Amino acid sequence: MMDHPIEYSEHTTEDWINVQESLKQKLILEDCFTWTISSLDMSSVENSRENNLKFIGGVDVSFLKEDPSMACAALVVVDAETLDVVHEEFDVVQLQIPYVPGFLAFREAPILQGLLDKMKQSANPFYPQLLMVDGNGLLHPRGFGLACHVGVLVDLPVIGVGKNLHHVDGLTQSSVRKLFEAKENNGKDLICLVGKSGRVWGAAMRSTHGSTKPIYVSIGHRISLDSSIKIVKLCCKFRIPEPIRQADIRSRIFIQQFKGSSSMDK
Question: Which residue in 219, 214, 18 sits closest to 106, CA to CA?
Fold first, then answer.
C-alpha cells in the first residue's frame, strides 16, 4: 500500500486528447481472448472445462468525503463460476490532479494499472483474464473512456460498466428512458445505444428483475459488445455486476479503515 502522492506533470487538455488519440490506435473492438464461458458455449465439454474463463477482475476507486484528493483503488477478483471473491488488492494514494470531465482516466488509470502490475509481477495465480471497470469504454465523448484507457495500458479484455450515461452523439438519459417505455420494447431488458450518426456506442441494460435504472455497458478493449453484454448478465446478482460491486464496497471500507489508522498515528 502506498500513501504517498502520485506525481503528475502539468498537462493541458490538448495534451491529454493527444495521448488518448495515440492510445486509441491500439484499441481492439472484437473478441481477442482464448478462454470460453461454459454457460455460453458448451460445444465441447472437455474444451469448456480446460479453457473456461476462471477469474474476472473488477476495479473501482473511492474517495474520502473530507478530502476528495485521497483515493483508495480496489482490484477484486471473483471466481467466474461462483462469483465468490478469491483475491483483493488495495492502494491508497493522494491524487494531485482534479477530476476533469472526459479525462477521468488521467486521474484513476495510473493507480488501477499499478494494482494489476503488482499482481502480474508477483505471478499471482488469481490474475484476472478479464476486467470490469466502473466507468465507460467507447461510450465517451471521444470514444475512449477509462475502460478503454486501462485496457490498452494493461493489455487485457476490458468491459466498461457505467452507472450514468455520457451524453454522446444525441444519446441522453431521457431518450433512453423513452426507448425502454416504447411499445415495441415492452418487456425488454436491453436497449442498443445507437447515436444520431448511426454508430453503436454500447447498450443500456436493466440488469436485474424489476430494475428501473439501467447500467450502461460498452467495449473497453479486446472484447466485442455482444460478449460484454453476456458476461455482464452472468455477473449480476444486483444492479451492478459483482466484480465492480465488490470493488466498490471493499474500497469504501478500506479507505475508512485507513483514515482511522492514520488518525490514530497522529
Answer: 18
User: Do residues 69 and 96 make contact, with C-beta atoms less than 8 angstroms apart?
Assistant: yes
d(CA 187, CA 204): 14
Q: Which cell is 120 given?
A: 502480474
Distance CA 133, CA 137 (A): 9
Q: What is the pLDDT of residues 196-254, one digit of tens each?
A: 999 999 999 999 887 789 999 999 999 999 999 999 999 999 999 999 999 999 999 99
> What's the pLDDT tens digit per position in 41-52?
444 444 456 799
Q: What are phi and psi of 108, to 5 degrees?
A: -105, -30
Residue 22 is placed in which grid cell? 495515440
**All structural domains of the chain with their residue ranges:** 12-33+52-168+220-261
Task: Tell me which of 13-17, 75-79, 112-116, 228-232 is least confident.
Answer: 13-17
Q: Which of 75, 71, 72 is nearest to 59 (CA)?
A: 75
**Continuous segment of H or E residues that includes residue 20:** helix 13-24
C-alpha cell at 222: 479486446
| Contact between residue 140 and residue 216 where contact means Cβ atoms under 8 Å apart | no
Please state which architecture CATH assigns to domain 12-33+52-168+220-261.
Answer: 2-Layer Sandwich (3.30)
